[in-house]
Design brief:
Elements (H helix, E strand, L loop, with lengths): L1 H14 L20 E10 L18 E6 L2 E3 L10 E7 L4 H4 L6 H7 L7 E8 L2 E7 L5 E5 L2 E6 L12 E2 L12 H8 L12
Antiparallel strand pairs: 1-2, 1-8, 2-3, 2-9, 4-5, 5-6, 6-7, 7-8
Length: 200
């Protein structure tokens, strides 16, 4: 994963913040650094929204698996798409999240989202009239917004990442309310599942 992140960062540096601009033409195939299953490991109020504790209803994608596949995004609604097109490029900070980071507080808000303050490496998914951008953060995860909720997606690691599938993959308790170190570890660690891919 570190090598993939290095390649992404090299691409971003090559483009440079000053050269941020048009995305690549959309096509049915996701880039290799995006393709496959990612898991939503964190949900929090977006930096432009009022801080508060999220309920499970406010963060329905938390603990879900999202599969960026050929011509489709597999996972729960509203992110699932039966006819997806993919693009990539570099986005200016003040263009990120539909311009919601623009203004005097843009750098502070970007830090809250674990994003840099220059050009953001961006994976774009087009599903009909809906366009979703996923930004590579400083941990080599990807960050997206759905309304006023910011989601962080992590690629599962371990002995066999291929066994992780699209769909809900979390424990029975509400990870949005996880308070103890043990609960947070369970919510963040996809390897806590048993070999059948279900939670004990």
């Amino acid at each position: 994963m570190r090598m993939a992140f290095a390649a992404i960062m090299a691409f971003a540096e090559l483009c440079g913040a000053a050269a941020a601009g048009p995305m690549m033409p959309p096509g049915p195939s996701p880039e290799s650094s995006l393709a496959g299953v990612w898991r939503v490991i964190e949900a929090k109020p977006a930096p432009w929204a009022k801080p508060h504790a999220l309920s499970k209803a406010e963060a329905p994608l938390l603990e879900s698996g999202i599969d960026f596949a050929e011509g489709a995004v597999k996972g729960p609604p509203p992110i699932a798409c039966a006819s997806a097109k993919y693009s990539s490029g570099v986005t200016y900070l003040d263009e990120a999240f539909g311009g919601r980071l623009a203004g005097d507080k843009s750098t502070a808000m970007a830090k809250q989202a674990h994003l840099g303050d220059g050009g953001l490496t961006t994976f774009r998914v087009v599903c009909g009239a809906v366009v979703r951008d996923f930004y590579v953060d400083e941990h080599a995860d990807i960050v997206m917004a759905e309304g006023d909720v910011l989601y962080t997606l992590e690629r599962p690691t371990g002995m066999d990442p291929q066994r992780f599938m699209a769909g809900f993959s979390g424990p029975s308790f509400d990870c949005a309310k996880a308070r103890t170190a043990a609960d947070r570890l369970i919510c963040a660690d996809a390897e806590c599942r048993n070999p059948t891919g279900t939670w004990p």
